[in-house]
Amino acid sequence: MRPVTKESATTRQAEDGLLLATRLLASVIIPVLVAAFTILFGFPGTTRQLWAWTIRPDLASLVMGGAYLAGAWFFARGLYVGRWHRVAVGWLAVIPFTTLLGIATFIHWDKFNHHHVSFWAWLILYTATPLALPVLWLRNQRAAGVPTAVTGLQLAMPLRVSMSSCGGALMAAALTIFVRPTTAISRWPWMLTPLTARTLASFATFLAVVWLAFGFTDQWSRLAIPFEATAVGLVIVAVAVVRGRNDLVGGPRTAIFGVLLGTAVLASLLVLGWANRHRTDAPANGPGEVQPTG
User: Fold this and answer.
1) DSSP assignments along 175-220, one per residue
2) What pLDDT was estimated at residue 47?
3) If DSSP codes are grouped into helix, strand and coil, which group holds residue 290?
4) Distance between CA 97 and CA 122 in Å, rounded?
5) Assigned domain for 293 exists
6) Given a cut of 70, is residue 248 above it in pLDDT?
7) What is the pTM of this model?
8) How many structural domains compose the chain?
9) Is 20 part of any domain?
10) Mean of pLDDT over the chain
11) What per-residue confidence (pLDDT) applies to 291?
């Protein structure tokens, strides 16, 4: 392998950096997501007074709050690392999530608390970002130029196939629920409305895109940060389910959901643990990069 000189490493980092617009948008989004987490996870029973729409039961609010914190984690990690190839997959995954939530807003317009400031913040966020994000993503892709070979941990084909297959299945389920929320309402382990069903389906598309991306790259460095964010989200969702267990309906549907969620959490932590064992903080690779194992 050709040695990486100080000059070539500096040039690669400059070409692979985040555009100013990308940094500014992330800097604006992070406090919004943290505030959303604080309201939904910290005070789930107050959505009528504090949120854009009234969420029932509390468990739905807790789950959504966990997802927002995972989003804040992703954007903050991306700003810290400052390398586009490390976060491009995650920024791409945000596009279907925000687009579907924007569509759901207009489908269920009458369910929102239009007199709340939080509603107008919601409306601006989920009408502006679906338009801005694709443009911003393409601009950063062009600015990064032709992708260079990123030295680091390479993912084995069985792991890539397994993750991308799960991502495809999750995406199909999420889109089905979004189009026909009644398919989930009668099968979900807690009470859903069409709006909460579509909202949860929108959140699931982020996870689905990140998992699907395993089928398109074998470089862990391109997946690590967005995958970390999904793992954080899954762990917090598990905590939310335990905290809001009184809202569960019980029976087979709850057991199946628990098994699926537990499996996803365990698998995510195992993948992260495996990658971390091969990690090294080599300066040439930047923060969080990993070196080849063989």
Assistant:
1) HHHHH-THHHHTTSSS---HHHHHHHHHHHHHHHHHHHGGGT--BG
2) 95
3) strand
4) 13
5) no
6) yes
7) 0.88
8) 1
9) yes
10) 89
11) 40
Q: What are phi and psi of 157, to 5 degrees?
A: -60, -40
Give the per-residue pLDDT at 87.
96
The CA-based dihedral angle spanning residues 226, 167, 232, 268, taken in that order and rounded to the nearest 10 degrees: -100
Phi, psi of 227, rounded to the nearest 5 degrees: -70, -40
DSSP result, 152-184? S-B--HHHHHHHHHHHHHHHHHHHHHHH-THHH
Which of 5-9, 202-206, 285-289 reaches the highest mean pLDDT?
Answer: 202-206
**Cis amide bond preceding 57, omega within 30:** yes
Name the residue among 56, 68, 63 with its Cα closest to residue 241: 63
Nearest 5 degrees, angle CA 179-CA 232-CA 212? 50
Summarize pLDDT for 49-83 with one digit per residue, the tens: 999 999 999 999 999 999 999 999 999 999 999 99
SS3 content of the chain, % helix, strand, coil (to 5): 75, 5, 20
If one counts every other C-beta atom within 10 angstroms of the C-beta of residue 233, the result is: 25
Check the CA dihedral 292-266-242-118 and report its sign. Answer: positive
Q: 239 is in which domain, residue-wise?
A: 8-285
**33 within 8 A of 69, measured Cβ to Cβ:** yes
The phi and psi torsions of 265 (rounded to 5 degrees) equal -65, -50
